[in-house]
Amino acid sequence: MHALDVAVDLHPFIRKYNDGRIERILSSSFVAASEDPSGGAHGVATKDVVIDERNGVSARLFLPSGAATGDNRRLPIVVYFHGGAFCTESAFCRTYHRYATSLSSRAGALVVSVEYRLAPEHPVPAAHDDAWAALRWAASLSDPWLANYAYPGRMFIAGDSAGGHIAYRTAVRASRESDGGGIDIEGLIIIQPYFWGAHMLPSEIAWDDGSNSSVIKPGKMAKLWPFVTSGQAGNDDPMIDPSSDETASLTCQRALVAVAEKDFLQYRGRRLAALMRGCVWAGASGDNVTLVESEGEDHGFHLYSPLRATSRNLMESIVQFINQTAASPMPWPASVVPKL
Fold it and tell me: Is pLDDT of 119 > 90?
């Protein structure tokens, strides 16, 4: 590769060359689904389904073995959107198959991991449209696993990085769409989300001086949104910079925002959590919005080092968030920051 051949360099995610070639740098190998729950360490059965054949939207379903063997307890639904800067990774890759398997097993939830279209071949908002189609499909309970095992009254939307952004935007759309079919979102789970704005925050400018070892640099992140929207939107786009009015329109009951200490995107995540704490549904003291900080960790650490103590603590926070009810509050791990 010669530097002059590169038109857009968004390492570690993707490069686009002057001749139009696309190189996806961040990727992991494909893993096949298996409806036999005994085939894996976590006892989770998986299968792939087509949501929208016209647009190529599909998903991988994860069903914990207790439900598959006749447990009459209905399971919460977690519609999950993978990360990868809108342009790489997959619901079917090893990284996200492993993560969704663990989430399904630990939380006792039916996970719908969505395979949405990727930029730049399919510019944003294609991913958001696919996410909306997937949420409506999951809420319809048209698949036998959902019809037989899921509790539609306990719907969660979740995602990490770009997937966290997609999860937030899907929740906003669910609160506004007149044709949403009355989809009630109990919880929104946003893990190290990608948001940006027309101007870098002072903390992000300080982060960009090259003295830190973060895997992602603010200077490159500023190029991402124009790239994935094929130049149709800039960093002043309200889609990537949520306003207080937009956040106030959310109709979910609870939210969890997770950030990592060494990830400069933490400041945008903290800001979003603070905005949500002002919502009516957040409660008088904002107790329905939980902020989880992972000390000493960088962006995406929980995916690539799942056995690390901080990864386990983050997973435990998410599991407790899903299984918590107003009638049975659960103690949070020490990594949770209850107040902003």
Answer: yes
With contact defined as beta carbons under 8 Å apart, do 169 and 249 qualify? no
Least confident residue range of 73-77, 203-207, 260-264: 203-207
Question: Coil, helix or strand for 6?
Answer: strand
Domain boundaries, the chain: 31-337
Q: What average pLDDT does the structure give for the chain?
A: 89
Catalytic residue check, 299:
yes
Does the annotation count 263 as an active-site position? yes
Tell how strand 336-337 and strand 75-81 pair up.
unpaired
For residue 269, what are its two tokens?
């995540």
Higher local confidence (pLDDT), 42 or 126 = 126
Told to judge if 140 belongs to the known catalytic residues of this protein, a careful annotator would answer: no
Which member of 165, 263, 302, 317 is catalytic?
263
pLDDT of 221 reads 86
Instruction: Determine the Cα–Cα distance for residues 82 and 69; give it in Å rounded to an integer.
Output: 28
Which one, of 49, 114, 106, 41, lies nearest residue 76 by Cα? 106
- Residue 118's CB is within 10 A of a number of other CB atoms, namely 24
Catalytic residue among 90, 105, 161, 317: 161
Catalytic choice (97, 122, 128, 299): 299
Residues 6 or more apart from 52 whose CB is under 8 A from it? 130, 133, 137
For the domain made up of 31-337, the CATH class stated in words is alpha beta
Please state, as a whole number, how many other Cβ atoms lie within 10 Å of the Cβ of residue 100.
Answer: 24
With a CB cutoff of 8 Å and minimum separation 6, the contacts of 70 are none
For 312-322, the pLDDT digits (tens) are 999 999 999 99
Strand partners, 77: 110, 155
